[in-house]
Amino acid sequence: MASSSVASSPVFLSGTHPIASPLISPAPRCRKEVSRKILAVMAPAQSRSPSTTGSVKHAMTLTEKILARASERPQLSPGENVWVNVDVLMTHDICGPGTIGIFKKEFGENAKVWDREKIVIIPDHYIFTSDERANRNVDILRDFCMEQNIEYFYDIKDLSNFRVNPDYKGVCHIALAQEGHCRPGEVLLGTDSHTCNAGAFGQFATGIGNTDAGFVMGTGKVLLKIPPTLRFILDGEMPNFLLAKDLILQIIGEITVSGGTYRSMEFVGSTIESLTMEERMTLCNMVVEAGAKNGVVPADLTTFNYLEGKTSVNYEPVYSDGHAKFLQEYRIDVSKLEPLVAKPHSPDNRALARECKDVKIDRVYIGSCTGGKTEDFMAAAKVFLSSGTKVKVPTFLVPATQKVWMDLYALPVPGSGGKTCSQIFEEAGCDVPASPSCGACLGGPQDTYGRMNEAKVCVSTTNRNFPGRMGHKEGQIYLASPYTAAASALTGLVTDPRDFLR
What we know:
This protein has helices at residues 4-7, 62-70, 96-107, 132-148, 172-178, 210-219, 244-255, 270-274, 277-285, 301-307, 368-371, 374-387, 402-410, 421-428, 482-491, and strands at 12-14, 81-85, 88-92, 119-122, 152-153, 187-190, 204-207, 221-225, 229-235, 264-268, 294-296, 328-333, 340-342, 350-352, 363-367, 395-398, 457-460, 476-480. By secondary structure, the chain is α/β, with parallel strands linked by helices. The protein folds into 2 domains: 59-304, Aconitase, domain 3, CATH 3.30.499.10; 342-499, Aconitase, domain 3. Strands 14-13-18-17-15-16 form a 6-stranded mixed beta sheet, with helices on both faces. Helix 4 links the parallel strand 4 and strand 5. GO terms for molecular function: 3-isopropylmalate dehydratase activity; 4 iron, 4 sulfur cluster binding; metal ion binding.
């Protein structure tokens, strides 16, 4: 749960009960999709007779609309079970072999997948390791993709140098976005809980198990229960010391790791509209840490500009109706927030970074689908640049994809006089950026880069801090934004980035 100091200064206005707080102010209306009324509890479904002038329109949320279209239904309500047509199915080296095994068992050894162009297979988790079983998983994927002539298989054969593998991408969730597989209005399923990352594109994206995935491989369909929607209205100008990671840690700390269980989390407001696509991905990426079925940001010009040149597939965005009913709405004045961390051993164990200033750390880890994107490293480089000093603890850098890795060596950091991230990291004494992959986020084999093989204390930009998550079961992980992670690397203590960002 949240720390006492955080809980005493709520930034949420939930339900219809006003809360006296200096952090709450009337939020400006954000476009037409924001409801004019805050609803604490969704009204029970009602059957209506047609009016004299025709059928009464059934207002739906963004998620409901996507699933209604995908199930070829004119309208849907939370709690209904429907067969949904899937647009994209993704699997990777951990769950892919199991999914393939179920597909072959249920549909036959010689069965063909429902659509070879709608299945995306991305090895990314246990890649740069000498573990034979991990390597064998990738071999299984390769054999299956050759057998089925899968269009999108991002293979890696030479583990000694990832750059000689032109097809290899890296972390599946970021690769899906960069390669144009994330499109507004579509349904994207993946055998990974953080598939919800793709909701940043205004689509329904969620993780499924191997059994469901095996069925989707053969039929292109899945049975889903329609989730009710929680709406989060974030307004106010983002302070220069905050990132989207702070926003989602604030939300998870408020509603807890079970507060979004089998619910959709929709994000709107002036703050959301100002976020880049990578920051929106961070926000949607961690809704599963609140137990949510999916997270979603309505598509807008930022979305369309990002997708330009990435996909030739036609897509049609949808938006929540003005009178759609939400299970609950929350309003947040972002301008009043402070840098946060999630203390061990839960993502909802929220605390202000400055409250943890006496916590000594052993290492910093910057990477993963949550915190290993180009903008995440740019943010860390900004802190190192402003300090001009060297890190005091080992600082591991794991780019999410090949593209991110190249950006670290090619893109100048604003205000640096032309220096790249890699130059700034070298001057700060960080480790050389590693081969792109999930790295130590999920622990992995013993020889995984950055893995905690001893009981260490780590500040990490990853998404989970459960016991054993990054390796050793007695390791302690403080989840933080790239700003906070970089600031902590410079001091050897959990550090508020405002100490370096002016």
